[in-house]
Amino acid sequence: YVEPISGLPQVTIAIDRHAAGQLGINVESINTAVRTAFAGEVVGQLHEGERRFDIVIRLDTAYRRSMDELAALQIRAQDGHMVPITQVASIDVVVGPNQMQREDAQRRISVGFNVRGRDVQSIVDELQSRIDADVKLPPGYRITYGGQFENLSAASRRLAVAVPVAMLLILFLLYVTFSSATQALLIFSAVPLASIGGIAALVLRGMPFSISAGVGFIALFGVAVLNGIVLLAAFRSLHARGITSPLRVVIMGTRERLRPVTMTALVASLGFLPMALSTGDGAEVQRPLATVVIGGLVTSTLLTMVLLPMLFLLVDRRQQRRSLGASAAVVVMLLVLGTVLLPAQPRVVSLPQAIALAAENNPDLRIASLEVERSALQGRAARDVPPMQVMLMGGQYNSSSQDNNVTLTQSIPFPSKLIAASDLAGEQQREMELRRALSRREVDHSVRISYYRACLHRERMDLLTQMRQLAQRMVEISTRRVEAGDATPLERLTAETQLNELLVRWQQEQTQMRAAQAQLSLMCGVRQELIPVDSTITVSAPRQSADSVQSPMIDVLEQQLRVAEQAGRVVSSQLWPDITLGYYTQTLIGTPLSTTGPLTPATSSDRFQGFLVGLALPLWFDPGMARSEQAQLDRRIAEQRLRQGASQVMTTLRTLATSIDAARQLVEVFASRGLPTAQLLLDNTRRAYEAGDASWNEVHTALRQVLETRSSEIDARFNLAELLSMYELYQGQ
What we know:
This protein is 65% helix and 12% strand. By secondary structure, the chain is an alpha+beta fold. The chain has three domains: 6-108, Multidrug efflux transporter AcrB TolC docking domain, DN and DC subdomains (2-Layer Sandwich), CATH 3.30.2090; 151-336, Multidrug efflux transporter AcrB transmembrane fold (Up-down Bundle); 355-381 and 413-577 and 617-731, Outer membrane efflux proteins (OEP) (Up-down Bundle).
C-alpha cells in the first residue's frame, strides 16, 4: 500500500499581468471577481432587530458548472467597460495533490506492506540494506520504520532492561538464600543451560525471536533455577548429615532429587504444551513463549542433572587445593599457639595459690568488677543536665514584615537534685563494691571446699592403696594355706573378692578426685588441670569468737539501707523547682528605634535582645507524695531485711560454732584413740593370720573396721575444714 499524493483535478487561472496592465485592470480586481463569482463576497449586512446577517453575492449555480461559465466571466476595467477574463488570464485544468499528511509539523508519505513467512526484524534489515545501496534521497528527505517494527523495537529496549534486572535479582536471592557466592553461581549456571534449549527450540520450529519469546525466557530462567536449588539443597543436606565424600554426596543427592526435578520440569512443560500447539487467535504470541519454555526445560533438566554435579565436584576440589595451600600456615599457627589450642599440662598449686588464681581469673569476680566500673560511670551520669534548646521563629508575628527570633533556653535542675542524685550514685557504687567483696569471699570459700575435696579423695586413694597392699599380702598367705591344706579354696576366693572390691573403690575415688580437680580449675578460671600440692587435709585455722562479727553479708544489707535512705532524699529533692534560663534576639521591622527624636523604624539589621528566667513548679503534689511514701516503704523494707539478715547470720554463726566444737572433738578422738587402736588391731590381726592363729573371718572383719575407722577420720577432718571455711565466710575473716 502506497499512500496516494496526486490525482485530484484542479482549475488554475494564470493572470497575464502585461495584458491586464494594457487594459487598465489590476490583479486585485481579477482575484475579487473570481472570488465573488465562485466563493461569494460580503457586500453588506441585514439588520433584524438585534440580529445581523451578512449579505453575500455570487453567481448562480447554473453559471458555475463548467469552464465556459468561468471563461465568460467579465472583469471591469478602470474606465468602466467590461473585459472578458480570457483576455487577461489563461484558464487550464491540471492534476493537483490528492492529500497532504503531516507528522511533527513535517510532510509524510506512508508505504505499508504485510509480512508472511518471515520475521519483521529480518525484513526491515534487508529493506534498509537495499535502500542504502540503491536509493539516494534528496536533501531533507528521510525514511523511518513504524508499525509492528516500531513496537518490536520499543519492547526490545524494555526487555534489554528487564532481563538483566531479573537475572540480577535471581542471583541476589540465591546469594541471600545460600550465603555463598560460589553456590549461587553454581545454581545460576542453569540459566545459560536453559537458554540453549530455548534458542534451539525456536530454531527447530522456525520461529523468530519476539517479545513473547523474551517473556518466555524470563519464565524459563525461574523454573531452571528452581531445579538447581532443589539439587544443591540435597547436596547441602547430605553434607550436614555427616557425609564428607563429595562424590558420594553427588551420587546420593542426584539419585534422591532425580524424580522431584524431573516432575517439576514435566509439569511445567505439559502446562505450556497447549500453548505451543495453538493455532487460533493469539497463537502468534502464545507459541513462541511456550516453545521457549518447553525447549529450555528439556535441556536445563538434562544438563542440570549432569553438569551441575560435575561443577560441584570441580569447585569442591578447587577449595580443597586452596585449603592445602593454607595448611602450612595453619600448622605453624597451631605450633605457635599450641599452649592455647591444646589442653594445658596439669599444674600443682597450694591453697593460697589457688585462691590467688581465683581472685584474678574467676568469671564471677570479673563480672562484679565490671559492675563496680559501671556504677562509677552512673555516678558521672547522675550530674547530667538537660541539653540546651535552640529555637528559631520566623514569620509575621509583629507586623506584615517577615521577622525572625532566635531563642536559647537552658533548664538547670535545682542544685539539691544534682547533689542528691550524685550521693545516690555514690552509695550504689559502694554497694557494688561490697557485693564484689562478698563475691570474693564466696569464691574463696568455694575454692577451699574444692581444694579440700580433692585432698579428701586423694587421701582416700592413699588409704585404699595401703589396704590393697595388705589385702594382696593376705591373698598370698591364703594361697599358701590352701596349698598346705590348712584352709579351704573358699577362703582364698573370699580374699580375692575383697581385693577386687578395694580396687573398685579406688577407681571410684580416682574419678571423684578428677571431678574435684576440674571443679577447682573452674572456680579458679583456668583451663589447666589444678592438682593440690597437699595429699592430706590440714586444718590449722583457729576459730574466732562470734562476739566480733564483721560479716560481709551484713555490710551489704547495711549499704542497701543507706541506698534506700538516699533514694528517699532524691525523691524529696524532686519537689524543688527546676530553673530555666534563656536569652533571645529578634528583629521587629517597623518598630521605632527611639521614643524621642525622629521616629526611625527598625530594619532587618536591627535586633532586639532580652533574657528569660523561669521556675518549673509541679501542679500536682500527689504523685510526688506517693513517690516519697514509696521511698519510705523501701527504707523500711531495707531495715527489715537488715534485721532479718543480721539475725540469720548470728544464728548461723552460733550453729557453726557448735558444729565446729563437735567436729574438732571428733578429730581429736580419732587422733588420740581411734587411729592408734585401728592400727594396733590391724598389726595384731596380720601377724596372727600369718602365724595361723586367726581365721579369715577375723582378718576380714579387722580389715573392714580399720578401713571404716580411717575413712571416718578423713571425713571428720574434711567436715571440720568445711565448717571452718563456712565460719570464716559468715564472720568476715
